[in-house]
Amino acid sequence: MTKTLHFAWFGAPGAHYWNLPSSATYDWRKGNLYMDIARLCEDAWMDMVLFADIPAIPTAYGGSNDHYVKHGFEVHLDPAPILAMMGGVTRHLGLGATLSTSLYPPFLLARMVGTLDHLTSGRTAWNVVTSASAAAAQNYGQDDLPEHDERYNIADEYLDLVRKLWDSWAPDAVLQDAGRNVFADPAKVTPVNFAGKYFKSRGPLTVPALPQRHPVIIMAGTSRRGQQFAVTNADMVIAHKNSVEDMRTYSTALRAQLLNAGRDPATCKVFFSIKPVMGDTLAMAQEKWAQNYAKAPPEAGLSYLSATMGLDMSPYDLDQPLPPDLPVQGMIGKLLQYTQAKKDMTLREIAKHEAMHETFPIVGTPDQVADIIEQTAAEGGADGFHFRTAVGDIDYLKEVTSKLMPILQKRGLARTSYAGTTLRENLFAF
Ligand SMILES: Cc1cc2nc3c(=O)[nH]c(=O)nc-3n(C[C@H](O)[C@H](O)[C@H](O)COP(=O)(O)O)c2cc1C
Atom 13, ligand 1: which residue's CA is nearest? Predict the structure, then answer.
C-alpha cells in the first residue's frame, strides 16, 4: 500500500542566493516574499515551512566575517517574527523556527513560541538546536559554547523547564466568565519555581495554555548524544543523509532507541533532506544538474562546512577525503554524513555538494523524481522529506509546488487535505 508522506520547505530567511533572477521581484528582507512562500506551500498541501537560524555571522572560515559578508552567507533575519506574518495569510500550514537552547533564556523562548502557537491557532514548531557557533555564543555575551555533549545535557534541562512553563496554565484555567467577573481560575495557574543545575525560573508563563499544549519539537542532531536527546524530546527529526543506506541505518537505530526508551516509534517522525533537480526529460535534468555542479563554488561549501562544524576548513587539501578524526566541536552529524557511506568523496566534491544545498542527489523528470522519493522513503524508512533550499529561490519553490507536488498527490504520496486544525494533528494524521 502506498504510504502518504509529509513534506516541508526548509531554508534560512536570508540573503543566500541574493543574486538569483527572482531577487528582482522579491527582496529577502521584505514580508511579501515570506507571505508568498507560505501561500505557495499551503496551496501545495505541504505540512510546514521550517526556518533555519544561526544568530551570528561566522568567522570560522579564514578567521574573519569577511567571506560571509562578501557573499551574503549566514546574513539573515530572525525567523520568529516572520512566522507570525506567514501565519496571518495561511490557515493550515505548520510554521517552524530554529531557536537555540545555548543562547535564549528559557522563559523568553517559552513565551515567544507560546505566543506564536496562539497567533497561529496551534501551528507552531520549534527546531531545537544547541548551536555550533562560537560567534553566536559571543553575540549573546558568552566567551564560548560549552562542549558538544554538555550542550545536550543543558538542553535536556532546558526542555524540561520550558515544558513546565507551558504547563503552568492548565488547559481549562481560562474561564472568561463575564457574569462572575472572573478571567481565569487562580488555582489552575501555578508558578513552576524551577531550580535546576543550569537554569532557574519562577513562572507561571504570562501566556495561557497553548493550543497544541506543547508545540511540535523538531531536532536535527545525529551524533550519538544528539539522538539520545531526540529520543527524550522530539516529535520529529530532520537529517541530512547522503545515501539510502545511511537513511536506513539512521532511521532503524532511532526507532530502536525510541522503543528501548518506552516510546512508540510512530510518535517521532523521520524526515530527510532532498533537493531534486528536475527537467522535462531525464537528459535535460542531468544537464541542469551538471551545470549547477560546474558553477558551484567550492569556497561557498567550505565556508558553510567551517561554520557548521566550527572548524576552519581553509587549510585542508581539496583533493583528499575528509579525515574521520577531524576535531569537530560543532555539528558532528555533518562530519558523519561524509565519513560514513560516502568515504571516497574529496573535500572539493563535498564542498560543491554543500554549495548546491544537496545531500542526496535526485535528478529526473517530475515523474522520475516522484518514483525516487517513493522508493527512498520505503527503503530509507522516511516519514517525510524537507526540501533544503534558500528562501530567495522562489522559482524553485514554484517548480516543486506546480510540477512535483501534484504528481506526488495523484499517486497518494502527498496529502490533499489537512485533517486537523493544529500542526501536531496534521503531522500525526498518518
Ligand atoms: C536539516 C538540518 C538543519 C539544521 N538547522 C540548523 C540551524 O538552523 N541552526 C543551527 O544552529 N543548527 C542547525 N543544524 C544543526 C543541528 O541542529 C545540530 O545542532 C547539529 O547537527 C549538531 O548536533 P550533532 O552533533 O548531534 O549532529 C541543522 C542540522 C540539520 C541536519
Answer: 129
In this structure, what C-alpha cell is assigned to residue 31? 514580508
Q: Which atom of ligand 1 is nearest to the CA of 133?
A: 11
Domains and CATH numbers, the chain: 6-290+360-427 (3.20.20.30)
Output the CA 406–ligand 1 centroid distance in Å: 30
* Pocket of ligand 1 contains residue 155 by CB under 6 Å: no
**Maximum CA pair distance of the chain?**
76
Residue 388, phi then psi, degrees to nearest 5: -95, 110
Which residue owns the Cα nearest ligand 1 atom 22?
Answer: 331
Ligand 1 near 239 CB (within 6 A): yes
* Ligand 1 binding pocket mutation candidate from 98, 103, 129, 133 (most atoms within 8 A of CB): 129
Instruction: Output the CA 1–ligand 1 centroid distance in Å.
Output: 33
Q: Is the dihedral of CA 327, 330, 332, 334 positive or negative?
A: negative
The candidate with the shortest Cα–Cα distance to 212, out of 115, 286, 302, 141, is 115
- Average pLDDT of the chain is 93
Lookup: cell for 313: 576548513
pLDDT tens track for 199-244: 999 999 999 999 999 999 999 988 899 999 999 999 999 999 989 9
Q: Nearest-CA neighbor of 216 among 44, 94, 298? A: 94
Assess contact for 401 and 44: CB atoms under 8 A: yes
